Structures are given as C-alpha cells and as structure tokens.
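Researcher: We're teaching a course module on how sequence relates to structure. For the next exercise, students receive a sequence and then see the predicted structure as tokens, so they can try to spot secondary structure elements on their own. Here is the exercise chain.
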Amino acid sequence: MRIVMGSDHAGFELKNHLAEHLRSQGHEVIDVGAHSTESVDYPTYGAKAARTVANGEADRAILVCGTGQGIGMAANKVPGVRCAIVSDPYSAKLSREHNDANSLAIGARVIGAGVAEDIVDIWTTTEFLGGRHGRRVTMLAELDSVEPGE
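Model: And here is the predicted structure for the students to work with:
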C-alpha cells in the first residue's frame, strides 16, 4: 500500500517511527513533512497529505500532530478525504469497517509509540464492510459538494 504521512513539529518523531514501522511491513511511504521539530503549522501538512490521497497519488494518509485533532480537521477539509481521528485500536478498526476512512490522524501527545503501532496495524489491514455502510459513505461524499446553508 502507498501511504502518505504528514505531521507538525509535535508529531515529527512519532511520524518517523511509524514510517519505519510501515516500511518494515512492505508499505511504500511518502513523507510530506514536517522534517524537524521546529514549530510549523499543522494545516499545511494535513492538507498536503490529504490532497495526495484525494488526487490518487497515495492510497491512504497517516497524520500526526499533538492530539491528532488539528491535523485531522485540516485533512477533512479536502474533498474526498475521510480522516478518522483516533486514539484506540477499536476506533481505528471501525473507522475502516464502517466509514472507509482513507486517512488516519493520531496524537503524539496522547498515545505512545506501541499503541500507535497497534492502531496503524489494525487500520492498514482492516477492510471496508460495504453494505449499509456503503450508503452512509456515499452520503458523506455527497457532503463534499454541499454549499453552506443548504
């Protein structure tokens, strides 16, 4: 699987750790930054990674910031991206089975490397169930083109 990864300064070290973990499993990793612990703005890297998924250059995105919240919110602004912000393996699993999440955001200040690896392993190996969940994912996709106030 081709996975794009992005982080801000707070997520830099965990992003790098997870990138190596993914490479060891045979995944191709595209790193769009950040490239140090120097302070940067999470929307830049969340959007950059999300656009890489939306335009088909990557299959999925994994994003890391302090809590996962900000970078996940940025990713979710990109049409076609369904970014799940999770801090536990169960939510990661259901984000794939029920929501067909194509992006994952986690918080480096919220979870440790071991839990992050568990989340990533489950998230990258869990398939979308389709069925009634497919109808709901279609409804989410339709929201990408809704104008404010509709």
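Model: If you want an answer key for the exercise: Strands lie at 2-7, 28-31, 60-65, 83-85, 103-107. The first helix runs from residue 12 to 24.
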